[in-house]
Design goal:
Layout: E1 2-5, E2 8-15, E3 24-30, H1 40-51, E4 55-59, H2 76-91, E5 96-104, H3 106-117, E6 122-128, H4 134-140, E7 142-143, E8 146-147, E9 156-158, E10 164-166, H5 168-173, H6 178-184, E11 189-194, H7 202-211, E12 215-220, H8 231-245
Parallel strand pairs: 3-4, 3-5, 5-6, 6-11, 11-12
Antiparallel strand pairs: 1-2, 2-4, 7-8, 9-10
This protein binds 3-(4-hydroxy-3-methoxyphenyl)-2-propenoic acid (FER).
Length: 246
């Protein structure tokens, strides 16, 4: 299935809760930078949500997975516009009673920004290993492990696995202010972060959790960015929190 956003097709997978309810609250679940909606940790998070009575809508963002657009042309503005379109699509589904957001890494940053923009719609927020430091790093001229002059952003940035990213990605990231988005959202937040994350330091998730008015932090000891060692502990953290939310 595709959700249309200004002519761009976003690949989406909508699944009902395990309890078979006719009407249900929904979690929109978003992957990270270079990721897609079929990754193990994305499917795992969605599965727990469906077991807890939520439907899930996993979506590939611009330039990722089976969605339209080129990786090199993706930016956080495009992803924000995508997320708003997905939220509006989901809100209009007759069976959906409530909108919740979950995202991993860059998708975690994205849902933090989208929750602020749609604060009157988004009931709950779960950033997983959120890459909330991307804007700050872009302003400092340090993205993807490479260093550049933030006042003269190069036309191209070479990403991990040698994929090319347009310099506009960095210019756009420089304009984003995560603290403002955090201050604008006061619904319940669960941040799950491994303390051996090699890509987004645990302290980034810890700081965001401390800044939210109403957040809990689940620290996964010894785990990596995608919960390679303790996927079960990430699932357990989400499950426990969702059960307490009910
Ligand atoms: C970066 C560090 C982490 C970066 C992106 C990420 C674009 C995102 C990681 C992810 O979504 O998994 O410097 O630059």
């Amino acid at each position: 299935m595709y959700i249309l956003n200004d002519g761009i097709r976003l690949n989406a997978v909508l699944e009902p809760p395990v309890n078979g309810a006719e009407k249900y609250p929904l979690f929109i679940v978003i992957h990270g930078f270079t990721g897609d909606c079929e990754e193990e940790h994305i499917r795992a998070a969605a599965r727990v949500m469906r077991e807890c009575g939520y439907g899930t809508l996993r979506v590939d963002m611009y330039g990722h997975g089976k969605s339209d657009g080129q990786f090199r042309d993706h930016t956080l503005y495009k992803w924000i516009t995508n997320a708003l379109a997905v939220i509006d699509y989901a809100k209009a589904l007759p069976q959906v009673t409530e909108i919740n957001l979950c995202g991993h890494s860059q998708g975690g940053l994205l849902v933090m920004l989208a929750a602020a923009l749609k604060r009157d719609t988004v009931r709950r927020l779960i950033p997983l290993s959120p890459a909330a430091m991307i804007p700050e790093q872009a302003r400092a001229g340090q993205l993807l492990g490479i260093t550049f002059d933030p006042q003269h952003v190069p036309d191209e940035l070479v990403s991990w696995d040698d994929r090319i990213l347009d310099g506009n990605y960095a210019r756009i990231a420089q304009t984003i202010h995560v603290e403002e988005a955090i201050a604008a959202y006061n619904g319940p937040v669960l941040i799950v972060h491994g303390d051996a994350d090699e890509s987004v330091p645990f302290e980034v998730g810890e700081k965001a959790a401390a800044e939210y008015e109403n957040a809990e932090l689940a620290r996964i000891p010894g785990d990596t960015h995608c919960f390679d060692y303790h996927l079960d502990l990430m699932e357990e953290a989400v499950r426990t929190w969702l059960i307490r939310q009910a």
